[in-house]
Amino acid sequence: MSVVALTTRPARSGRPDRAVPPRPRTAPTVTITLDLGAGPLTPGLARLAELLDELAASGEALVSPDEHRAARTVLDLRRAAAAPPPPAGGGVRILTGTRRVRLGDTEITLTRIEYDLLLFLAEHPRRVFTRLQLLANVWGYEHAVARTVDVHVRRLRAKFGPDTPLVTTVYGVGYRLADDAAITVDRDA
């Protein structure tokens, strides 16, 4: 990985006839290059790649659509190749009677909103929801910052880890339950 920081200061020229005019910049720029070709991603690099993906999806980073798609494809292929088989317990179980969530044989502690968000998405598979729709259906109101949803989705993903697909980001729209999410809703437990 290489990180190159470019500042807005003009370059000092040694000789006026060899001076290269500085490129106009409105703000400092950071260029990050990740070598995604060889070996598994370390947890830190995987997290950095996820953050860069979120920045590109939100429009806060200047990434061409082709570069974003290519990087996304490489990351998805590497994750799929490195993903362990699903847990022996059958994936994620949502126990609605006790409001508990289990990943295999392990209980995952969720906040009220994280639980409600996961249950809502599990009850509506393959359907895409905007942030405002999720605020209205899960939080019960629309008078919050739409990025509140992003924070809860990120925390939910972190609690289950990168090896358990739960929520898929639909760029420019919102979120939906991941296609390969092994989730069962148990209403009797």
Separation of the first and last Cα atoms: 47 Å
* CATH topology description of the largest domain: Arc Repressor Mutant, subunit A
Helical segment tally? 5
* CATH architecture type of the largest domain: Orthogonal Bundle
Mean pLDDT: 75
Spatial order of the strands forming the largest sheet: 5-4-3-9
Quote the beta fraction. Answer: 15-25%
Low-confidence stretches: 1-11, 83-89
Q: Characterize the biggest β-sheet.
A: 4 strands, mixed
Estimate nothing, just give the exact number of structural domains.
Answer: 2
Shape field: globular
Q: Name the CATH superfamily assignment of the largest domain.
A: Winged helix-like DNA-binding domain superfamily/Winged helix DNA-binding domain
- The percent range for helix content is 25-40%
Order of helices and strands: EEHHEEEHEHHEEE
Q: C-alpha Rg, in Å?
A: 21 Å
* Helix/strand structural class: alpha+beta
| Name of the CATH first level of the largest domain | Mainly Alpha
Number of beta strands: 9
